[in-house]
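User: I'm writing a tutorial on reading structure tokens. Could you give me a worked example: one chain, its sequence, then its tokens, then a sentence or two explaining what the tokens reveal?
Assistant: Sure. Here is the example chain.
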Amino acid sequence: MGEKPENKKRIGNVSGAEWHKHMENGEVIKSYSFQRSYKDREGKYQNSGFFGFADLLVLKQIIAEFIQEGRSEQNSVQAVKDTFVLDRVPF
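And here are its predicted structure tokens:
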């Protein structure tokens, strides 16, 4: 793959990554991946996309953090757009 995630989050053995795809029109498409690390029978660390019941609350927390950051970012972008529009309105 060679690409690096734009943002990573980890709680215990559960992690998430935010990936950005830059489109030709300047739009950024965000996608997310999640994994759980564990030690196999030989003691080597492995990763899995499968989660146990106990992992779900941790996964929920990581997802909530990504959502909160996305909302904050959208609010900042909207505030800039609103300011730009309001600056152009003749009063």
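What the tokens reveal: Residues 55-88 form the longest helix (34 residues). Residues 7-88 form one domain.
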